[in-house]
Amino acid sequence: LLVEEAPLPESSLAFVMSFADRGFTADEPKLGLDPDKVKRWLDDTALAMELMNTVSVPIDELPKEGLQGEISSNPDAVVEAVILRTLLAESGSEIRFPANVVQEGRAASAVLHRDGGLELLRRFVLFEISGERGIRQSWSHTIELILSEAPDSWRDELREFDPLVVALTIPIRASRNARHEAVRAIWSWFVETRIFMPRDRPGGRLLNEVAVVGRLLHDGPPEGFIDELVTALSSPENTARANAIALLVELGEENL
């Protein structure tokens, strides 16, 4: 993407999909099918796998209902074609996506572009137990990708379940005030939870919270924020000191 000097996508989901869909632009082998329909089938397949919390399925269990008739009279040939174009990967008797983030991106795309996507999240991804709300851990990456393009109404609802991920995924094109509010929400969350930035999470992370704050404050920090970080350098809490140092380094001398 960078070698071709193409503009960077505006969202993390668009960035992932720009790589996930590169197989559709290959000259050979000829796909001979409607690429939009194949993309929808791949997205729906990824969504089914995310809901099953799996990264691979046996070839004979790969859902082919969406291929029969609407896309091709020979679904097995479609599967072979997408494998040859590296849109899916074959490993012995199992099929998987080329990378976990590709599966997560396609599942995110399916949720965003299908009817009832938000209701699906309510039923299978969001939870409330004994008054505590949260988001299914196995969906942490997928939710981050969804929120990078989700409408405000979705963001408002998911904020009730995970305010941090909503703050971290605010679009860079958002207003300065909105970005400043998000940064303060991020900082407050880490102060309250006493967790080091960036978080070390199971399955790795898509978002580095320190880098996110740097991007959101590309045009300068909110009033008093630097003073707050400097004050935290004297905190008796080691996570507050470490996080303040990380953010001050990220923001650079020009903001001190």
Task: Write a structural description.
The protein is mostly helical and 256 residues long. Helices cover 50% and strands 7% of the residues. It has a three-stranded antiparallel sheet, with no helix packed on it. Strand 2 and strand 3 form a beta hairpin. Helix 4 (100-113) crosses helix 5 (117-124). It is elongated, with a radius of gyration of 21 Å. The relative contact order is 0.09.
Q: Could you name the key traits of this structure?
A:
single chain; about 260 residues; mainly alpha; two-stranded antiparallel ribbon; 5 strands; about 50% helix
Structural class by secondary-structure content: mainly alpha
Question: For the largest beta sheet, what order do the strands appear in spatially?
Answer: 1-3-2
Report how far the terminal alpha carbons are from each other: 35 Å
Beta-strand content estimate = 5-15%
Radius of gyration (Å): 21 Å
> What kind of sheet is the major sheet?
3 strands, antiparallel
Q: What overall form do the CA principal axes indicate?
A: elongated
Low-confidence blocks of residues: none
Written as H for each helix and E for each strand, in order along the chain, the element string is HHEHEEHHEEHHHHHHH
Number of strands: 5
Number of DSSP helical runs: 12
Mean pLDDT: 87
